[in-house]
Request: fold
Amino acid sequence: MRAILRVLGTAALLSASCDWAMAQSMSSHATPGAQPQMKSPRDKAGAEALKSDGMRMSRGMMSARAPDIDVLWAKVMIAHHQGAIDMSQSVLKTGDDPEARRLAQATVDENTKAKADLEAYVRKHGG
Reply:
């Protein structure tokens, strides 16, 4: 029974990751003009960085492997938090709105701690 629950939990996590990746992928194929044009080359570079960050996060989440659902969850979340850090750092490099920059820095700080806590959990539980 536990093995079945483990498989179902893993499938649910991977399915959610795949759904997110598919939504991101499909958003780039939207109807022309559906998304506003970026104002500047810096905005375009930032948007490309965010897209790349999101794709890297999805790959990390989908490639996580572990012997049980608890450690798998932690590994998927590590990739998720790293994605939030990467995306926020992209905004810090390319964004110019003070409020967005403040939120991005707070996101880096919060997710760096959460990621470290999850990494400690994985080390403790033999992942």
The chain has four helices and no strands.
